[in-house]
Amino acid sequence: MALARRISEMEESPTLAVTAKAKALKAAGEPVIGFGAGEPDFPTPPNVVEAAQRAASDPANHRYTPATGLPALREAIATKTARDTGLEVDPAQVVVTNGGKHALYNVFMSLIDPGDEVLIPAPYWVSYPAQVQLAGGEVVAVPTDKSTGFRASVDVLEQHRTSKTKAVVFVSPSNPTGAVYPREEVEAVGRWAAEHGIWVITDEIYEHLVYGGRVAHSLPVVVPEAAERTIVVNGVAKTYAMTGWRVGWSIAPEEITKGIGKLQSQVTSNVSNVAQVAAIEALTGDQSAVAEMREAFDRRRRLAVDKLSAIEGVDVVEPEGAFYVYPSFEGILGREIAGRRVDTTLDLADVLLEEAKVALVPGEAFGLAGYARLSYALGDDDLAEGIDRIAELLSS
Ligand code: GLU
């Protein structure tokens, strides 16, 4: 076999695979409704698009710029971080990357040695374990379920800690469950990590998408003594409907940031300057679109929860953030649907796509089977129609 083992042993991103399949079927004329991708359906705000158009005409942006990012964007990220979470950072701690996903990859590659263990509360976003494995690390999944609101307690984390534990991945609001950790739980996790010298990689990409008066607390702000071993990852994709622009970043202590900068200088060089200038406008310009989109997501969240809860055999924990709902379908499994036996949520996802033309991501992808993830970042009409189709098929 020609393919290197690290790649042959790796799976393609299931979230992107489901999304690509749904989009291809739709392009081929199938009436597919996609709950797969976590991708806002809104266009990027016009002020951001206009900034990019101007940037494309400026020859300064036609050349290489520093691998770690445009100085003005690193500055804007530091200012935005203080504004939105209260964390004071130096622009020198910021590295601009090709989306949040790439920031995470850089972080794992720069922090994790072969054999280091990384605790990842499950269900988890699909790329955390894949990236830890690429770095040679050992993934230690820390199980949670609906009985704890999908939040990992310090007790459960402690049960999985060993002398090889190097880092914990902390995500609130969470993808795929929408769980938001209350301040006292963020504090408990931060204190525990600081006490044991464990690094925290905190993914804050959904920080602005919280509902019902909840707040996304930034771990290094709540627990300043954890800050020297905390790396914050974030990006413009979810807050500003900019998934395709690919701009994310990491904020890390100096030593790690230098490592990430070195890696990036050898692997990608700078992120597209046009996209970086667009990100500056997103972070520093008019913020009103953020609240408007959050309101729409909140409306869709309530619609999704109401409609899914009404289906017999489906059990929903109300998501408090992000734009995902992660219902349990355990009450459906073991049945025959459209002439096919459905024993797992993988089977269920197949039947739903084939028979109801609805795409969702089975929980197997996120490390907790029996559940499935639906993104509600799609239009209200599609959302309602898609869940109606699921209800109809499951009750037939
Ligand atoms: N983060 C989004 C999701 O979970 C985008 C797709 C991906 O990169 O996984 O659907």
If you had to describe this structure to a student in words, what would you say it looks like?
It is a single chain. This protein is of the alpha/beta class and 396 residues long. It folds into 2 domains: 5-43 and 289-395, Aspartate Aminotransferase, domain 1; 64-284, Aspartate Aminotransferase, domain 2 (3-Layer(aba) Sandwich). 41% of the residues lie in helices and 14% in strands. The chain has helices spanning 5-8, 14-27, 46-56, 71-85, 100-111, 127-134, 154-160, 183-196, 219-222, 254-267, 273-284, 288-309, 345-356, 380-394; strands at residues 33-34, 94-97, 117-122, 138-143, 165-171, 199-203, 230-235, 248-251, 324-325, 335-337, 340-342, 358-359, 361-362, 372-375. The protein has a 7-stranded mixed β-sheet with strand order 2-8-7-6-5-3-4, with helices on both faces. A 3-stranded antiparallel β-sheet has the order 9-14-13. A two-stranded parallel sheet has the order 1-12. Helix 9 links the parallel strand 6 and strand 7. 51% of the residues are buried. The mean pLDDT is 96. The chain binds glutamic acid.
Biggest β-sheet, characterized?
Answer: 7 strands, mixed
Give, in spatial order, the strands making up the sheet with the most strands: 2-8-7-6-5-3-4
Helix/sheet category: alpha/beta
CATH architecture of the largest domain: 3-Layer(aba) Sandwich
CATH topology of the largest domain: Aspartate Aminotransferase, domain 2
Mean pLDDT: 96
CATH superfamily of the largest domain: Type I PLP-dependent aspartate aminotransferase-like (Major domain)
DSSP strand tally: 14
Shape: globular
> Which stretches of 5+ consecutive residues score pLDDT under 50?
none
Our count of helices gives 14
List SSEs in N-to-C order: HHEHHEHEHEHEHEHEEHHHEEEHEEEH
Count of all domains = 2
Gyration radius, rounded: 21 Å
Helix-residue proportion: 40-55%
- What is the end-to-end distance? 46 Å
